[in-house]
Amino acid sequence: MLYATINMMTRFANDLRCLNHSSPNVHLSLRPLYCENDECIEGFLTCQFCLTAYPIIEGVAVLVNDFVKYCESRVTTFGRWLVNSKTSEMKNFLKSRGRSISSSQARNDRYEEGGAWYAPYGWLQNGYSLDDKLLRMLRQRLKPNEFYDTIVHLVKPKSHMVVLDMGCSMGYSTLELAKKCTCALGIDLSFSFILEARRKLSASKLENVEFFVSDALQAPFSSMKFDLIFALNILELIERNGLLLSIHKLLKRNAQCIFADPYNYRLKSDSTRIIDGQTFRAILKDSGFELMRKTFTESHIPWIIKIDARSYLFYFVDLVRGKKV
């Protein structure tokens, strides 16, 4: 497995801020603990003011506000970190945090490796082939990656554009965006997703991309940093008003955001979390965004999740583009 070089990690550390500070001038500095051939595998990103240390584990920077709470919801993953840690300092750091984990709260997140939704997301990330039984039946009518191709095609190449992919999953859309912009950053709360995204990054040889474990509601970036933000299929997974507030804060003035969602992705029992396309457009306008042309009406883009060899979920996804005003 390949990891970001120290130079690359240092470069992107300058784009990050400590979650305890709102000032854009509070940067994080890299302190590598274990490296191989100039590759940072273990270390810390440390705040220069409050000295908060965000760990880099298996090459992945984990930038969350409450590390113990994060670990409580993925105890299997945490156990693997502890067993496989390369340095005594990282092992001691994990042990000290592990003592605060509540056994009553401990569980393993369904989006981590071995969880119910890890394999399906792996399949939908450019992993289909015409050997797939369903796709062979739909060969003339459906392209496996039509959803991602449609979304990414909307972005016109620009030499000076910084893009954030919120809820980037395993990084397929982020890596495609990187081919069109100066810098593309992807964040997701699943450590396993980000680990796989960074594997794809290593294989791609792209040098203008980085992935972080982070919460979209508490993203470790300065205000008005991004020219474009993607938020694909996450409206029902994240508190909606908080998400729109976070996106509005992170976008530059007149910058765009692109949403794509089936609206009933998880079939929540809480009906207040389920909305339709027109309702979301109204909410978006009330949250400080202007609707872009060609997205005034609802669209229906096919999207398939393969659960296992015999079961699939089929959705029509709605595309919405907004501009910060």
Would you give an account of this structure?
The chain is of the alpha/beta class. The chain folds into 2 domains: 6-98, no CATH class; 119-324, Rossmann fold. It has 11 helices and 12 strands. It has helices at residues 6-13, 67-72, 75-84, 88-98, 118-124, 133-137, 146-153, 172-178, 191-204, 240-250, 277-286; strands at residues 28-36, 39-47, 53-57, 60-63, 162-166, 183-188, 209-214, 226-232, 251-261, 289-291, 301-308, 311-324. Strands 1, 2, 3, 4, 5, 6, 7, 8, 9, 10, 11 and 12 form a 12-stranded mixed beta sheet that branches. Strand 1 (28-36) and strand 2 (39-47) form a beta hairpin. The radius of gyration is 20 Å and the shape is globular. The mean pLDDT is 87.
Beta percentage is 25-35%
Total count of helical runs of at least 4 residues:
11
* Overall structural domain count: 2
Query: What is the typical, i.e. mean, pLDDT?
Result: 87
Largest sheet, described in full? 12 strands, mixed
> What structural class should be given to the helix and strand makeup?
alpha/beta
- Distance separating the two termini: 43 Å
* Secondary structure tally: strands: 12
Nutshell version of this structure?
By secondary structure, the chain is α/β, with parallel strands linked by helices. The chain has eleven helices and twelve strands.
Describe this protein with a few key phrases.
single chain, about 325 residues, Rossmann fold, 11 helices
